[in-house]
Amino acid sequence: MNSERNPGGRLAQLLRGLWSAFKGGAAGDAPRPAVDAATPVASAPAPPPTASELINEGLRQRQEHGVAAAQPFFEAAAQLEPNSHVPFFMLGNVASELGDLDTAVRHYEHARNLQPSDPVVRYNLGLNHLWRGYVDSAIEELRAACNLNPAYLQAQSTHLWALHNSDRLSPEEISAATHDWGARFGLQHPEDAPPVSGAELPEVVRVGFVSGDFRTHSVAHFFEPLAGARDWKAFKYVFYSTSPHQDAVTQRLRAYADDWRDVAGLNDDALIELIRNDRIDILVDLAGHTEFNRLSVFARRAAPIQASYLGYPGSTGLSTMDYRITDAITDPEPAADAWHSERLLRLPDSQWCFRPFGTLAAAGPLPAGKAGFVTFGSFNNISKVSDTVLHCWAQILVNLPTSHLRLTRMRSPQRTDEILSLFARLGVAADRIEIEPYRSDTPHGLQFAGVDIALDPYPYNGVTTTCESLYFGLPVISLHGRHGVSRSGLSILRSLDLQELAAATSEQYIETAVALALDLPRLESLRASLRSRFEQSSLREEKRFATNFEALLLTAWRKAEPRGSPKISPKSV
User: Fold this and answer.
1) In angstroms, rounded to a whole number, what is the distance separating the alpha carbons of residues 212 and 311?
2) pLDDT for 397-429, tens place per residue?
3) Among 87, 100, 146, 90, which Cα is nearest to 122's?
4) How many angstroms separate the CA atoms of 92 and 118, rounded?
5) What are the C-alpha distances in Å from 115 to residues 85, 122, 404, 573?
6) Full-model pTM
7) CA angle 154, 158, 159 (to 5 degrees)
């Protein structure tokens, strides 16, 4: 007999313990005294909990005691109802929140197989695939979630974002998917009667910024320079925070706002009303298709002029997003204009101005001098690391037989094993690869210790990680393509007059990395000079950047179409 179904088996024991906890008693009650004939017979014991009750109790335990406390309740529910997808979905959520993404995927896959028509299961499975570095599988599941529920914005946005991580898709294919989404989304969220704007430029331009990243986040590194160096007389800034998460960086950013609005709990109607009551002239989206975006508010045109900037590396796809702010290196004309629903406003320098959080220690001596070999490092999310760039990295190590590679932010032991197997097949022993698991709390700058050269991923280049690496003193080798997502490294390196470190082909990427690794005097010189070079570049000229940015805002106002006239085709401004 199956002991799981035996009244005295493991499941029964587990249920008794859980039910006791559920009802507030102890798992092992003391023996009861004998009952004589005069004692009334006690009522029958309550029936054991159902799977639904166990799931509800697991959710309560999670709320009160943390994620791990919920797991045994969901496990018991899964044993009671093995043909229900809900307990396995809950177990996937627990494993994902605890950081065990491989286990999470196994639970989500089981839930999907039981209920393939549930879009939330498909979404969670796709998202966890993406975090683990399985981009193709992520796109497949996210596309399924989108097809099952075309109104599921979170899935739709994550799907478009995932496309940018693929080395198998062209800019034209990404653009087509984005424009198709935008057309459908516009029908779901039609433009309201546009707010009335005066023909003349107001004496003080009221600019609203909408973001869920006014906190310790990559976006804050680049938004704070603008917020801190802006023209306080000519512009009024209102920050609309769409995330419930706040920290010390939030408090710092609050000081730069003329008005601050916490809007995470507002629905679209309420947020649009608030923005219009604030009389915003230009509304700037800082999220694109990333977390906590409010693209449905922009689709309905909350402000007379709307622009996207910073948080997302491509077009939003919205016909009501009038402009996207970028630069001529990241999004060169005319090709990039054709891939956007927005008209492109190009800054004269790079679109990024970087402010580090805290103080990064000086780089110190070149690690290769003491180690006797060069160590390369990758500090980006593994979702950005494609097969294309993995083969490049392997060839670099083959060409430099003593060199090592450090991979950080690895979130999947399964993916780690596959990468090590790939390198072994290409001639690189596992003892030359240093694997560091993902940590969200790595002390600032310590991830760079012992590394000589940073390697940028492809096709999704780094931005914050590239700036931090260069600011610390690590030269970065980057591979650029046609789409803006793979050209941020080129834009940043050109700002430092180091465009020779940005390669146009895989072969050039390999050659550039190998040549630099063999030139230790140049490596030492770069390590010693990169901090000052960065400080003297446009990447740190906050006042210059803010002036140029606000000039583009005024350009947007002057070139805005009269309301009610047909929208012209995208073009460069």
Assistant:
1) 10
2) 999 999 999 999 999 999 999 999 999 999 999
3) 146
4) 14
5) 6, 10, 45, 49
6) 0.90
7) 115
